[in-house]
Design brief:
alpha/beta, Aspartate Aminotransferase, domain 1, Aspartate Aminotransferase, domain 2, 3 domains, 8-stranded mixed beta sheet, 16 helices, 41% helix, 14% strand
Length: 471
């Protein structure tokens, strides 16, 4: 029986979601059972049907149930032994604290540049950021500008990040576990230096973020590609490797947009424990989930200290800020202290101080709401326009989250031809082939389309031009 508390601060749909999640994970609702229909449950609970649908969609997104046309919502099998071992609610509380130069130039000048990860200046909180920078320069701490500062990053900023991560991603840590870095790649480089002495083999999803693959190769790792399936990485394939490290985007795989289902998340934690391995979780765009609440981080399920968590301000604030952070598991802290105690933080004191104030004064949460709504509208415009113009001639991968999609175009053209045709119409789209370690496994008829740097009107105009030259 579901008890709804209308006076609770927890949204109604989340109360329904939490009820079914608990029932399924403990086995009280058995595998292959069918959940009540959305109409029937809404009538029973006296809530809106949309409320029930939102709860069910969240369960689907995390792999607890599957939705099949005509069959309703079917409960998936959950490995309860693994679930109980790796998820311990008592520990979830917070303790006290390339292109060539000319090609790139032409792309930047194009009105219809579907570049991934570029944000709109109209969405940037310029007035507030300028004010906070001025406050920092006029503060009593200005002498810090001419000194070397805290090696892991400013403590007050790390405390704000700690609180934000717990509230938004379920990440449990202490400020001493957080290291502020000048971008994801520098963060990964530091992690490579931490781990390389103990392991040489690293597993990566196939396809994956190509810059990360290059970085691991440059640091002397043997990279092992692991196929990505509809519900996440191929666990069986992973288990047959000698890898002692896995780099993964479980909440929004790049570039496919796949979400790692709950059973595979538990399987990953089990794999890391059995093999004395670490998982590097890159949670790069976790703020953007358009059809349900954000997927909980993998780190939030881990009570064995196997997850090295990464995140960045680049996808939600400003790529040029060059500010990211690492959350190290406790057992790696001593090793970090021994190896990096002489390293200074690579992010300027002034920008760290401004970001602390930005978060502490509530600007950060307000900004996230604004940029989420802006990019959701752009996403919806993109998907609706593609569907109206191109219909079944294309297939969309990775919709409903993030700042990009993959578009499979079924008109007989190769990736190169699709990009060249787009360029001829003044539209810039991007290749997918470089994300594959083995290009032979790639269909060679996709392009990557980012939407966050364009207006809704430009998205529509650009897609109309693509439809003309492709079809």
């Amino acid at each position: 029986m579901i008890i709804i508390n209308e006076n609770s601060k927890t949204p109604l749909y989340l109360q329904i979601y939490n009820h079914f999640k608990e029932e399924i994970s403990t086995g009280r609702i058995q595998e292959r059972s069918t959940l009540p229909s959305t109409r029937a449950l809404a009538k029973t609970l006296k809530v809106g049907r949309n409320t029930v649908e939102n709860a069910y969609e969240q369960l689907c997104a995390e792999g607890y149930v599957s939705s099949k046309m005509g069959s309703g919502y079917i409960v998936e099998k959950i490995e309860s032994k693994l679930y109980n071992e790796f998820i311990n609610p008592t520990k979830h509380t917070l303790e006290t604290p390339s292109k060539s130069f000319h090609e790139q130039g032409a792309a930047n000048r194009s009105k219809y540049n579907f570049q991934y990860g570029r944000l709109s200046i109209d969405d940037f909180p310029l007035k507030a950021w300028r004010k906070l920078l001025n406050q920092v320069l006029l503060s009593n701490d200005i002498n810090c500008l001419t000194a070397y500062n805290e090696r892991k990053g400013q403590l007050d900023l790390r405390l704000e990040i700690m609180k934000y991560l717990l509230d938004s991603r379920g990440v449990r840590c202490q400020p001493e576990q957080i290291i502020i870095s000048s971008g994801t790649l520098p963060s990964l480089s530091l992690i490579c230096q931490l781990l390389l002495k103990d392991c040489r083999d690293i597993a990566l999803e196939e396809p994956c973020y190509d810059s990360a693959r290059s970085l691991f190769l440059n640091n002397g790792f043997n990279v092992i590609p692991i196929a990505t399936q509809e519900d996440g990485i191929d666990l069986e394939m992973l288990s047959k490797t000698s890898a002692k490290v896995l780099y993964i985007n479980p909440s929004h795989q790049f570039p496919t947009g796949t979400v790692t289902a709950i059973n595979k998340r538990l399987g990953l934690l089990d794999w890391s424990e059995r093999n004395d391995a670490y998982i590097i979780e890159d949670d790069y765009d976790s703020e953007y989930r358009y059809n349900c609440r954000p997927i909980p981080s993998l780190q939030s399920l881990d009570n064995k200290g196997r997850i090295i968590y990464l995140n960045t301000f680049s996808k939600s604030f400003a790529p040029s800020l060059r500010m990211s952070y690492i959350v190290l598991p406790s057992q790696l802290l001593e090793k970090y202290q021994l190896s990096f105690q002489k390293y200074n933080c690579s992010v300027s004191w002034m920008e760290q101080s401004a970001m602390y104030r930005f978060m502490n004064e509530g600007h950060w949460i307000r900004h996230l709401r604004k940029i989420y709504q802006a990019n959701r509208k752009k996403h919806d415009t993109l998907i609706e326009t593609i569907s109206e113009l191109m219909g079944e001639k294309v297939k969309i991968y990775g919709k409903n989250s993030g700042l990009h999609i993959l578009l499979e175009v079924n008109n007989g053209m190769t990736e190169k031809e699709l990009i060249e045709k787009a360029n001829s119409a003044g539209v810039v789209v991007y290749p997918v082939s470089n994300y594959w370690a083995d290009p032979e496994k790639y269909s060679d008829n996709m392009v990557l389309i980012g939407f966050s740097g364009l207006t809704e009107n430009d998205i529509v105009e650009g897609l109309n031009l693509l439809n003309t030259v492709w079809f």
